[in-house]
Amino acid sequence: MGHKDIKKYILHCSVFMMVCFLCLFGYIVYLQVIAAPSLAANPMNRRGNAALDITRGAILDINGRELAKSSQPGERSYPYGEIMAPVTGYLGEAIGSDGIESVAGNDLTGQSQQLQMLGPIGQAMQSAQGNNVKLTVDADIQQLAYEALGSHRGAVLVMNAETGAIIAMVSKPTVDPTDVESNWKSLTAREDSPLLNRATQGLYPPGSTIKVLIADAALDEKVTDLNEKFNCNGKLQIGNEYIGESHGAVHGNNLTLKDALTESCNVTFGTLAMRMHGKGLESAFDRFGFTTPINSEFNESKCHLPKFSSLGDGDTAQVGIGQGETLVTPLRMAMLASAYVNHGKIMVPYLVEEVISPVGLVIRKASPSKWMDVTSEKRANIIGGFMENVVTNGTGGAAAVSGVRVIGKTGTAENSQGADHGWFIGAAELPKGKIAFCIIVENSGGGGTVAAPIARQIITALKDR
């Protein structure tokens, strides 16, 4: 082999090693810069949680009561147990974390994202005590809502309509966070899904609660007005099929849009949906944010909407009464209700109020912000007035509280697996601010019977606070 051949092989080897080095360097940059945030936040990344030799900070409610605490590294207790489980989540060395334990994991361990990216160097700089995280949740209201739901499956979500702060977030069935890791196999095998946070991850047909959106959309699309009179003989014929009223009701002639919402008339809202066709309905759901993610504090299931452009008249009418392929979370329905007491805008929902250092300094404080303008103030007042009539003269009477303006809409969602689910969404104007809420009670029948009374208990409790 000649001298030139040796130089050629050396050059080839050098180029090959340089390419390998560049590939390795590029991958390291990818892990440290591009993928680092998602890897650090991954609930199965235990380096930032149980594996760190620190005392994890406490999770507090809005009044400073401990919802989760640690007295030493590797130890965690939950004073409110299963009542607060949908909020706090759980923490386990082998199963990772969920809820606030996951979302605020970096804060609770006192480790910033920048420190996590530094790996062993970051751990050397780690404090022995994590930060406390104060939430917007009120433990008293959480417990009241939990008890009001009783033995039913379902969810209750209460939020400040003017700020987006979550006041209560209940889901049943649930588990004691302390027992999750030791019972992981049996819990994940249960058919009733106790680890599912139904408030943010449960997907349900909205039933008649969606009619507030349909009424808004129909006015926006100008397919009706406040003076049109509808006739309801109990059935809406679509080809050879019919959409009927609940319990065979007949609402009669000369129904205005306000009357139709108060009586929850399927004939009227199926008709309005068909007038708007797929394009109008799709625009309305987009306008109200059902296709837009919220923020990282909620591990929310994505709402399922039909492919509107391909719907026939029958399926389009089903959208108008909250049946068919439409599936939504209780969180989204509480947000929808909030628009009608908040001048047509929805605030960004949030759970973390403050992050507090071990010496008591507020490191970070929440700043409420607008999420979307979903309807005009004028139309919000109109639909809000309709919803008030639902409570004062319609199916939502069980939510009425003396001296408080309460607006709402009941709903009954058909369930192929058993009895219908009962919904109640709405809002209340209290002396210290406006709240919005959503209650769903699985397999309970009509929402006015079981769900609306839960709203009344919550409003009554918050009235004088």
Explain what you see.
The structure is a single chain. With 465 residues, this protein is an alpha+beta fold. It has 17 helices and 18 strands. The strands form six sheets. A five-stranded mixed beta sheet has the order 2-1-5-13-14, with no helix packed on it. The protein has a five-stranded antiparallel beta sheet with strand order 7-6-18-17-16, with helices on both faces. A two-stranded antiparallel ribbon has the order 3-4. Strand 17 and strand 18 form a beta hairpin. Helix 11 (211-220) runs antiparallel to helix 16 (377-393) and helix 13 (266-287) packs across helix 14. The chain starts with a helix and ends with a helix.
| Overall mean confidence score, pLDDT | 90
Specify Rg, calculated over alpha carbons. 26 Å
Number of strands: 18
Q: Which structural category fits the helices and strands?
A: alpha+beta
Core attributes:
465 residues; alpha+beta; five-stranded mixed sheet; 18 strands; 18% strand
Structural topology:
Layout: H1 3-34, H2 36-41, E1 59-60, E2 66-68, H3 85-88, E3 91-92, E4 96-97, H4 100-103, H5 105-108, H6 113-117, H7 120-124, E5 132-135, H8 139-149, E6 154-160, E7 166-172, H9 184-189, H10 198-201, H11 211-220, E8 230-232, E9 235-238, E10 241-244, E11 252-255, H12 257-263, H13 266-287, H14 313-320, H15 330-338, E12 345-347, E13 352-356, E14 362-365, E15 370-373, H16 377-393, E16 405-413, E17 421-430, E18 433-441, H17 447-463
Parallel strand pairs: 1-5
Antiparallel strand pairs: 1-2, 3-4, 5-13, 6-7, 6-18, 8-11, 9-10, 12-15, 13-14, 16-17, 17-18
